[in-house]
UniProtKB/TrEMBL annotation:
Coiled-coil boundaries: 359-707, 761-849
Gene3D superfamilies per UniProt: 1.10.287.1490, 6.10.250.1310, EF-hand (1.10.238.10), YVTN repeat-like/Quinoprotein amine dehydrogenase (2.130.10.10)
Native source species: Effrenium voratum
Keywords: Coiled coil, WD repeat
UniProt-listed PANTHER family: CILIA- AND FLAGELLA-ASSOCIATED PROTEIN 57
Record InterPro entries: CFA-57 (IPR052993), EF-hand-dom_pair (IPR011992), WD40/YVTN_repeat-like_dom_sf (IPR015943), WD40_repeat_dom_sf (IPR036322), WD40_rpt (IPR001680)
Record's protein name: Uncharacterized protein
Xref: SUPFAM superfamilies: EF-hand (SSF47473), WD40 repeat-like (SSF50978)
Region (Disordered): 982-1003
WD repeats: from-to residues: 42-74, 165-198
Length: 1318
């Protein structure tokens, strides 16, 4: 106990670590009813402290100890925030980084608590007994709790067990998380350190042990600058050493000469803090330099061993606790930037947790107070009304009283005013008298002044004469003094020279004496040093002999002790290993028996299920065979319907003239429509720019709204704090402190930031204005250049149209001449009787041929059928059946066509070839072939309609959509082999004969199909709305270029089964804006673009982030059609019709699922078009053309293409070979591996089979639910190993074979290893 100097306070220190005060003031003694003893600052722990942890987001630290209390301290204000007493001791404690949750380990369980405003509240209890170590991860999503020799890792917010970490043979003493929270390190009394990978289900990564040592602390460090990331462990224990372990090896160790209990490493790895835990010794803190060099600085902290050490996240504070019950807080000096700088870092959070009950109580109190306020308002209003009545009465009395007084005062005023007038008249007379006397006095003064000036002038002249005389006398005296002074100076110079000579001689003598004394001193010093060195050598030799003898004795004794200790340790280890082996073998035997029984049951059930599936597949195959038979019958009906359709077409001919007249009008309207489209394109560009500006303004408005909300919240907080401040207005000192706190809180913190925000806003506005002006100037320049090029392009286009029109007229004239010549030849033929006999003979031969059974087709036709059936049989399970059915139809078509051909043309196919109207000289396409057959009536013979498409595909052996003369001559060989017709000789070109008027049959133009018809056809065949997008990806744009050439478009049309001329459709699409998906199906293209934009805006990042956050938050890897339509309609606000088109396009194989890899199509959709078009324009503008091209070079003005440049544009040569083009950016886009059709097929089929693998794995896991958790984990690892990704030939198996192979691999994994030993 002690008394203050003023004798007003007594300080008391208790044995329970408490500091109390007692007031001796008489006033306090009179007021105090109870005991006046109170804590000096706050209450402290009354015993050793076991647990310590610090919060990241708040300035709080938590402790627990033997006094059964858990305390929350504010280390910034140095105050106790909260204290709660429990019925039992708390062994360990952990603080969540957010400051809202605590973990406290008791003797019977671990409690998870919420830190409320005034209390701890338990929300989960975990049955872990005597948990003496628990730690949250750095991110707070996990926490680890020690259960004897096992570490259990839980999820913080769901309390689910992530993994159980085993391996220690004794109690675990310390755990530590790595900085990325992926790994956990631990150590214990068994002398072992382990590193676990949490992401890999707690698999042990590294381990190191030292038997016989009790480790008490461990920390993990990962060097972020190292090329190969590895974790370095630092452990301390009972061996009085600080060890550094990396990759299961001891890299370094330091002897500390004292037992180190706890370790802590600063987050920036600048220093390592260690606490001394020697029993019955004061606990000090050591600060080691990091990386470890052995140097440290020691600070005294505790009177007992150190129990816990923690470092704040911002490295500003160091906390330590000891068995003396003290919590020590150290300030760490700043040698670099701090993480919580006011300008850049994040400050401490001031949020708190409250319960619903607390809010309800506060709300009830608030309502009660509001009710009381209303009562007081009504009471005060009544009192005010009462007082107003009293005041009005008093006012009337006062008004009467003051009106009388005012009248009295008015009368007094009149009297005073009359007196004032009389006094003014008297004052005027007095002023006149004073002015007259003043004038007389002024005149007298002027006369006296003139007399004085005359006297002073005479005196000045006299003084001037005296000054001249004095000046002459001074000059004479000055010259005499100068002469005398020069003589004195000369005498002094002579005396100084004599004294200088004497001093120089004296100095030389003193220097010689000094040199002699220095030599004597050196000799004496050397003699003394020799004597001292000789004595030191003698003493050193004597003590070295003694030290060597002591070291030999020490080494001998230590070796003997080590041998005995090692022998004892080996015996104990061998005994423990034997016992563990016995237990392990018994447990493995029991588990193996249980696993065998479960697998036998699964095998029986699965074999039964496989048999049922095989039976179902066989029924399906039989059904497919029956449907194909029905399809053949329907094909025959189709031939009949085609004939009826042609008859109906003949009825449309009268309308052809009207259609021709309307075509001219349509052409004019199309030109006008093109002008409107160009205007719309420019308007769309302006709209997009305005939309971008609108988005920017909206973002700015949102930012201003957020800023306004923050300012309103700040004003509200300031008002609340100001109201609190006004409560202390009666106490000047408290008022001053509260005003100062307000100034620090609201004035000093935000001035610089506001200035900085203002400067940033000004710079942002300036940059935005500059960019908008630049964009406007570039737009004007682009519009001017585009106008100039548009005029040139229109002129060239008009010239091309006129040339094409002339070419078509010439072709029509040639065809007319050919028909006239053929008519003349028919007219000059032989007599009608010979012709009738020949025709009857041919008909008899044809009847015999048709009645004869067809056994095997000729080899040539079979080859053509197989070649043209490759597309249909690619995914068919019965190719032989389909080919045989097609052969029967083709034989009939070829026979009838050959018969009709020789009936019209005696010279065979060569003569018919010249009569066919062709756009190319050496090739014939399908519309030309069909028109020729209908014109010559070859498509109908003997009442049977010939399929032009089927026959044309048989003749088109190369599958390119055109037929040459040599392929067309196949009909001659067929007639020779089947109809016994002689092979015709080559028809010589005859000169044109004289014209004869022959009436030619009216040609029937084929039906004009539109882009909408083509799109409807694709949607019908490829899954409804959006089917055009799926067909575009699967069959047409297989290279992923975004646009198609004529050859690629023709191949795609044949692949999808388009039965009409693809060249006309190509021209229509090209005129509509290019052969792109947007021209084919603009609704699907617009839906894809809108989905991509909305997804990027929603996720504020790439599509991968949108997939992980909104489409597949569970991480399943795929999303079904139902989920896609339902979730995306709510998330993005897009209609389900547009979403259905997007899903159909992204699901090319019609599996009903979409994976993340399919979203890559949205990123590349139409993105390569701008690149390819700009690159082509730039090649043409620069005069570069590929080798072998003959295109005319077009010189474009500079600036048309913007800043787009090719990396090989500076090459001096003007031509590029195929190899050089392939390595160019355009070539890399065209020949990229992911654009090939084969790679696309692999991706699509891998997607579908991945879902099948996942289904099979999940079904097997469901069968194993009756087993333990460990068995399910083992089963999942087996699945990952057995059903891993295979090479490409594994994914093209049928479904039933897939399931058979899957079960076989699962039941017999050794066969898989033998099949693929690599």
């Amino acid at each position: 106990m002690t008394v203050s100097p003023s004798e007003e306070t007594v300080a008391i220190a208790t044995g329970g670590n408490q500091l109390l005060t007692f007031s001796l003031s008489p006033t306090d003694l009179i007021k105090a009813e109870d005991s006046a003893v109170e804590h000096a600052l706050t209450s402290f722990h009354s015993g050793p402290i076991f647990g310590l942890d610090v919060c990241v987001r708040k300035p709080l630290v938590v402790t627990c100890g033997t006094d059964k209390t858990v305390r929350i301290w504010n280390f910034v204000d140095k105050t106790l925030e909260l204290c709660k007493v429990f019925n039992e001791e708390a062994f360990s404690v952990a603080f969540h980084p957010s400051g809202f949750h605590l973990i406290v380990g008791f003797a019977d369980k671990v409690r998870l608590m919420n830190l409320l405003m005034e209390d701890f509240r338990t929300y989960k209890e975990i049955p872990i007994k005597a948990c003496r170590e628990c730690r949250f991860s750095h991110g707070g999503q996990f926490f680890a709790a020690v259960n004897s020799n096992t570490i259990q890792v839980y999820k913080t917010y769901t309390c689910e067990v992530v993994c159980n970490l085993r391996g220690h043979q004794s109690k675990v003493k310390a755990v530590c998380w790595t900085t990325d929270d992926f790994k956990l390190v631990s150590t214990g009394q068994d002398g072992a350190t382990y590193e676990y990978d949490i992401l890999k289900e707690g698999r042990r990564v590294s381990e190191w042990s030292q038997k016989g040592t009790n480790f008490t602390s461990i920390i993990a460090y990962t060097n972020p600058e190292a090329a190969q990331q590895s974790t370095t462990l630092f452990v301390a224990g009972s061996d009085k050493m600080l060890k550094e372990v990396q990759n299961s090896q001891l890299n370094n160790y330091l002897e500390s000469n004292a037992t180190l209990g706890q370790l802590a490493l600063a987050p920036t790895a600048r220093a390592l803090i260690a606490g001394v835990a020697e029993p019955d010794m004061p606990g000090s803190l050591r600060c080691y330099t990091f990386p470890l060099t052995g140097d440290y600085v020691e600070y005294q902290a505790h009177a007992a061993p150190v129990s816990r050490i923690r470092i704040a996240w911002d490295e500003l504070y160091l906390f330590s606790t000891g068995d003396d019950g003290c919590l020590c807080i150290f300030d760490i000096k700043k040698t670099g930037p701090c993480k919580r700088d006011k300008d850049s870092g994040l400050g401490y959070a001031d949020e708190i947790l409250v319960t619903r009950q607390f809010l309800d109580e506060k709300q009830a109190v608030l309502l009660e107070l509001e009710r009381k306020v209303e009562e007081l308002d009504s009471r005060i209003a009544f009192q005010l009304r009462h007082r107003d009545g009293l005041h009005k009465e008093k006012m009337a009395e006062m008004q009467e009283k003051y009106s009388e007084e005012i009248e009295t005062e008015r009368r007094k005023f009149e009297v005073l005013r009359e007196e004032k007038a009389e006094m003014e008249m008297e004052n005027e007379e007095h002023i006149k008298t004073l002015e007259e006397s003043h004038a007389r006095y002024l005149q007298g003064q002027q006369e006296s002044f003139d007399q004085k000036m005359i006297v002073e002038d005479q005196r000045y002249k006299k003084l001037e004469a005296d000054l001249e005389r004095e000046k002459q006398e001074w000059e004479a005296q000055h010259s005499a003094l100068l002469t005398e002074h020069a003589g004195v100076i000369e005498q002094m110079k002579q005396d100084a020279e004599k004294i200088q000579r004497v001093n120089r001689e004296t100095m030389d003598r003193i220097i010689k004496e000094k040199e002699m004394a220095f030599k004597h001193h050196q000799e004496t010093l050397a003699q003394l040093e020799q004597d001292a060195d000789r004595e030191i050598e003698e003493l050193k030799e004597m003590y070295e002999q003694k030290l060597a003898q002591e070291k030999d004795d020490k080494v001998r004794l230590r070796g003997q002790a080590g041998i005995h200790q090692k022998h004892h340790h080996d015996l104990n280890t061998e005994m423990m290993k034997k016992e563990e082996e016995v237990k392990t073998k018994a447990e493995e035997s029991r588990k193996a028996e249980e696993k065998i029984q479960g697998l036998v049951k699964d095998k029986d059930s699965n074999e039964k299920e496989i048999k049922e599936r095989d039976k179902t597949i066989a029924d399906k195959e039989q059904r497919i065979f029956d449907l194909k038979k029905q399809n053949q019958e329907l094909e025959k009906f189709r031939f009949v319907l085609d004939y009826k359709i042609r008859e109906l077409k003949a009825q449309i001919d009268p309308k052809t003239a009207d259609i021709a007249s309307m075509k001219t009008q349509t052409q004019a309207m199309e030109d006008e429509l093109n002008d409107y489209k160009r205007d719309l394109a420019s308007i769309a560009l302006q709209i997009s720019q305005l939309q971008m500006k609108q988005r920017a303004l909206q973002e700015e408005i949102k930012a201003q709204k957020r800023k306004l909300r923050d300012d309103l919240a700040l004003i509200k907080r300031f008002k609340l704090d100001l109201s609190d401040c006004m409560e202390t207005i009666a106490e000047p000192k408290a008022l001053k402190e509260s005003v100062t706190a307000l100034y620090r809180k609201y004035v000093q913190g935000g001035a610089k930031r506001q200035d900085l925000d203002t400067d940033m806003q000004k710079e942002y506005n300036r940059q935005r204005d500059y960019l908008e002006k630049s964009v406007d100037s570039l737009k004007r320049k682009l519009e001017k250049d585009s106008q100039a090029h548009r005029i040139d392009n229109m002129r060239i286009m008009q010239e091309n149209v006129s040339l094409i029109r002339e070419i078509n007229d010439l072709r029509r004239e040639i065809n007319n001449l050919k028909h006239e010549r053929q008519a003349q030849e028919l007219a000059n033929m032989g007599s009608m009787q010979s012709n009738r006999a020949d025709l009857e003979r041919e008909l008899d031969m044809q009847k015999e041929e048709m009645e004869a059974p067809v056994t095997f087709p000729p080899p040539d036709l079979e080859t053509r059928v197989v070649a043209n059936s490759r597309l249909e049989t690619r995914h068919n399970e019965f190719p032989e059946l389909l080919i045989s059915a097609s052969l029967a139809v083709l034989i009939a078509n070829a026979t009838l066509t050959s018969l009709g051909l020789f009936k019209v043309y005696k010279s065979g196919a060569r003569q018919a070839w010249e009569d066919v109207p062709r756009a190319w000289q050496t090739r014939m396409n399908f519309p030309e072939f069909a028109h020729w057959m209908q014109e010559q009536a070859i498509s109908r013979s003997r009442g049977f309609a010939v399929s032009e498409r089927c026959l044309f595909d048989a003749l088109d052996l190369n599958g390119i959509g055109t037929v040459t003369l040599q392929e067309f001559k196949f009909l001659d060989h067929w007639a020779h082999k089947r109809l016994k017709k002689p092979l015709p000789e080559e028809v010589q070109q005859k000169p044109p004969q004289q014209e004869r008027s022959v009436e030619l049959p009216v040609t029937k133009p084929p039906k004009k199909n539109t882009i909408k018809d083509f799109c409807s056809f694709l949607e019908t065949r490829f899954g409804g709305p959006g089917g055009a997008g799926r067909a575009w990806r699967v069959a047409m744009d297989v290279k992923g270029n975004g646009a198609l050439t004529l050859f690629e478009f023709g191949s795609g049309c044949r692949a999808v089964g388009w039965p009409h001329d693809h060249t006309e459709m190509f021209k229509l699409m090209k005129a509509a804006g290019g052969v792109k998906l947007r021209a084919l199906d603009p609704e699907t293209a617009e839906a894809l673009v809108r989905f991509k934009e909305e997804a990027e805006v929603k996720s504020r990042g790439p599509l991968q982030e949108f997939w992980a956050e909104f489409m597949d938050p569970g991480g399943t890897g795929a999303i079904s059609r139902t989920e896609f339509l339902k979730d995306m309609a709510v998330t993005l606000g897009i209609p389900k019709e547009s979403l259905a088109r997007v899903f159909t396009t992204l699901d090319p194989t019609d599996t009903g699922w979409v994976s993340e890899s399919e979203l890559q199509y949205l990123q590349t959709f139409e993105s390569c078009l701008d690149f390819a078009e700009k690159e082509t324009l730039l090649m043409v503008a620069s005069g570069i053309q590929c080798a072998g091209s003959k295109e005319q070079k077009i010189q474009l003005p500079a600036g048309v293409l913007g800043d787009f440049r090719l990396p090989w544009q500076a090459v001096g040569r003007k031509t590029l070979s195929a190899e050089e083009l392939m390595v160019s950016p355009l070539g890399r886009q065209l020949w990229a591996p992911h654009r090939s059709s084969r790679s696309f097929q692999y991706r699509a089929l891998e997607n579908s089979h991945m879902l099948k693998h996942r289904w099979l794995c999940s079904s097997v896991e469901d069968r194993c639910l009756f087993k333990s958790h460990d068995s399910v984990q083992t089963m999942r690892s087996d699945h990952n190993r057995l059903f891993r990704k295979k090479r490409n030939d594994f994914i093209f198996r049928t479904s039933h074979e897939f399931y058979r192979k899957g079960w076989h691999k699962y039941l017999h994994p050794e066969d898989e290893e033998e099949e693929h030993p690599s």
